[in-house]
Amino acid sequence: MSHPIPLSEQQRSIVNAQNGALYVKASAGSGKTRVLTERIRVLLSRSNRKILALTFTNKAGKEIQDRLADIEDIEQRTFVGTFHGFCQSVLENHRHLLGYAEMPHIFEDESDRLELIEQAIQLTPSYAASYRKQDKKQQRDFRYRALNFIANMKLRLINEADIAAQTENENIILLYCSYQDILKSQNAIDFDDLLLKVYGLFNDYPKIAALYRRSFFAVCVDEAQDLNNAQYNLLKAMANGEFRNILMVGDPNQSIFHFNGSSPDYMDKEFVKDFQATIIELTENYRSSKAILQAAQNLIPDADQVEHIVKQGIFKLYKTKDENREAQWLAQKIQQIVGLEKHDDIEGELSYEKIAVLARNKYLFKPLEEALETTGIPHYYKMTPGALKFESSLMQIFDLALRIKINSQDELHWRRLLVALSLGYEGDVDLSNVVEKIEDTNKKVIIELVLSLADDSANFKRQLESYKENVTLEDSDEKNMLFGDINELLIHWHNYAKTTDNTSLHQFKNAMALGQTAPLSQHSGVTLSTVHTMKGQEFDIVFIIGMDDETFPDYRAVRSGGIELTQEKNNLYVAFTRSKRWLFVTWPENRTMPWGDTKRREISRFLKNFPPTEVQEESIGFCREN
Questions:
Q1: Has this prediction a pTM greater than 0.70?
Q2: 20 to 30 A Cα–Cα from 341, which one of 22, 71, 461, 614?
Q3: How far apart are CA 388 and CA 484, in angstroms?
Q4: Where does the UvrD-like helicase ATP-binding domain start and stop, copy by copy (predicted)?
């Protein structure tokens, strides 16, 4: 097959490599995704079997699919998706072996899982008495600790049968088991169970793992530096020492999901050892300019050296009086950049769409959003893809009722729905029985809407649009939020419906829970994004704001030290390498705290080793900076 994108000699050697375990150690901007997609193209030419391409975000999967869209029958010849999405498809096909008559429902919200912890505590009398004696803060802290313990056990692939060997705390063992029993009784699993259940399935039923080994000619893992223990061992369980045609592509310096247990060691060490993988380094750079890469290497001196850099680019570090002046300076800088219209460093016209502003946390954008509004600069905040969160109270009721309609065993959301409807607890989970008891007309109508939806979802769009046309609400704010919620839900519905010919309410809800229905379309204007949300995307021009110490790195990481602080430096390295050509970094010398005090700030500890000449006083004028 011909390559639609020109490849360098180094990239071509990877794409055309012999079958077998291959680890591509890639530098920032070296064309990781291009190499992976073109490798898939070559692998498809070598076999009629399918290719499994695993990613860490739905967006990354969509990008791979788009790049391969010219291949005939590509959707039938590949499975491209996240680890959780792959596990969902395995469970849908083999759930009966795990005792599920129907595909279990996914409890993805943290608030749902915390409520299950509360219920599990009440079912653990040996602990419940002492729990009730604690104050509210102690109880809340315990619930979070318990949830983190359960998540950690599942990350380590430890199920109920093996939990006793992990701790001597009998109460926490009973709590784990009660939590799982409650999920099972409601025909549900939580997000972490997707990996745990399929891992168990592959180990307990070797023929199922063998079936998938035969189904796929090769497995390709994108951004493999983000693998965690559960994901890596799931892959090992499927391979079972027999399957070696695996490609992992990743950059050890861009591992930023440490909070989810990820580590580049699974790619860098375990995979190489377990699969005797051939290591090929991808060092050419096709994205970042020399100035940005030098800054990134100054940040992490032992980062890979990068060759063949074409553009000089700009890296500048600025300090400002405070966060408001920082925002005003940045807004004017953006105006002046766009006003240049063209520059040799950047292909095409300079536009707002080529600019992104990054920050460690979302709250840092408030002064900037005000400054951008004042100067009339179009912008949008890049949201993390995932399950849809409703703002209006009526659509929150709709969501609860929809969960009950598709899962009559869901006692957790049944209780929550009855509270929202101002009704007393009823044992039987039956929506039709409560309609006549609802006094609020608007709440009654929304329940009737849910009851009217067909299980196969054939009338989903029609019924929602009809409801929207006939809704009567006096509160204009609530009505405005309601309309916004319905419009967003219909976008998710459209994204789901176009992927399958056999739609159902159940599948739609699970697809939303896994973030598979989130809109992926581009927005217009300057992009505002946290560093985590921007992973995998690049812009010609990037600003990073709020680079004062204990803001970036985050104060919690400063206090913890160790790996948390290392992870923060990795985060900043990733932020730097989101820029292709120009990078401007700012920090305020003073920051106003939420309670009104102004605190003197120091520059981020990560930037103290940068040459002093790069630290400039705030300046509005724009010129070519070398």
A1: no
A2: 614
A3: 12
A4: 5-289
